[in-house]
Amino acid sequence: MSEHDLIPSIASLDQADLAAALQARIDAKTKPLGALGRLEALMLRLGLILGSETPRLEAPQLMVFAGDHGLAARGVSAFPSDVTWQMVENFLAGGAAVSVLARQHDLTLTVVDAGVAHEFAPREGLVIAKIAPGTADALAGPAMSPDQCATAISAGRSLLRQRPGNVLLLGEMGIGNTSAAALLLARLTDSPIAQCVGRGTGLDDAQLARKVDVLRQVLQRHGEAVTPLGALAAFGGFEIAMMVGAVLQAAAERRVILVDGFITGAAVLVAARLQPAVLQRCVFSHASQEAGHRLMLQALQAEPLLDLGLRLGEGSGAALAWPLLESACRILAEMASFASAGVSERG
Ligand SMILES: Cc1cc2ncn([C@H]3O[C@H](COP(=O)(O)O)[C@@H](O)[C@H]3O)c2cc1C
Ligand SMILES: O=C(O)c1cccnc1
């Protein structure tokens, strides 16, 4: 498949008239100018993405992409790879953090096996789209072949096409995937690896130093992998590549993309390097505790909504931020203006 067929074109949302109308609507509401703070920027963004002064969020899809990483065998995570499939079972059984939050907020939760090293019994809420049982060790060779990378992106796009609604909430699970995300961040922003690496599932100081050392070697081994797709194939993982496809498709369909933490951010970074207008469709849920996320947010020109010290992933931050999007839409639609409520304007 050529890159042209793989990557949809995504137009820039330049709608000066709608932006002006939205701003006037926000400013006319019964409150001092700007008093709803960053919620006002969120209203503007949602209005522009959905092309309406009174945007409505429909059938939100929380999709958790899961995959295993060959590099995990190098000791870059505090947990063993088996936790990936065990947590997939936990998501489906309703016991994980993201399961609880999805239930609380009526979000449709779909878990996607993008490449977990485990055979799952088919059941509702699980999509088996396995590219392979885990990526290869990125220190020994590329994590995936160019073909596998293209297949994963394409699968992410078609999964999105089949889902209803106009909001995608991104989540992921994959032991070792903070390493893949850090590698992508370092390569695509040309940043020192030490600034991109964090403790992930909870490495101590010595383990963190070892992780930095392993990742530095991986970067050296793949010095030629400088394009977004080249870096994605070199570093992995399947769940990240599938999210790249889902993000591109969601953006092409003008859905709102609610981005979670460090790993989903890496997928958005790759997608944005392929199609910069993707970023106009994104809302960033939170600032993660993972070191490197600050740099990633800068690269994504993102102002996250929450700062709760989260470092979990799964889409838990996206699910927590979801009610703010609902509030933004309701305020645009339902809050009175000075004129409609008969409230005196500023003297
Ligand atoms: C029980 C458990 C539940 C999780 N839920 C998300 N993650 C998070 O941790 C992993 C990334 O960290 P690292 O790169 O250090 O392996 C991902 O699977 C991520 O979603 C979890 C990790 C654990 C252990
Ligand atoms: O920010 C995240 O997404 C994150 C941080 C640590 C571990 N897993 C995920």
TrEMBL record:
HAMAP family: CobT. It comes from Roseateles asaccharophilus. Transmembrane segments: none annotated. GO terms for molecular function: nicotinate-nucleotide-dimethylbenzimidazole phosphoribosyltransferase activity. This is Nicotinate-nucleotide--dimethylbenzimidazole phosphoribosyltransferase. The gene is cobT. Catalyzes the synthesis of alpha-ribazole-5'-phosphate from nicotinate mononucleotide (NAMN) and 5,6-dimethylbenzimidazole (DMB). It is an enzyme of class 2 (transferase). The keyword tRNA processing does not apply. Its EC number is 2.4.2.21. The active site is at E314 (proton acceptor). The keyword Signal does not apply. Keywords: Cobalamin biosynthesis, Glycosyltransferase, Transferase. Belongs to the CobT family. CDD domains: DMB-PRT_CobT. It catalyses: 5,6-dimethylbenzimidazole + nicotinate beta-D-ribonucleotide = alpha-ribazole 5'-phosphate + nicotinate + H(+). It comes from the Bacteria.
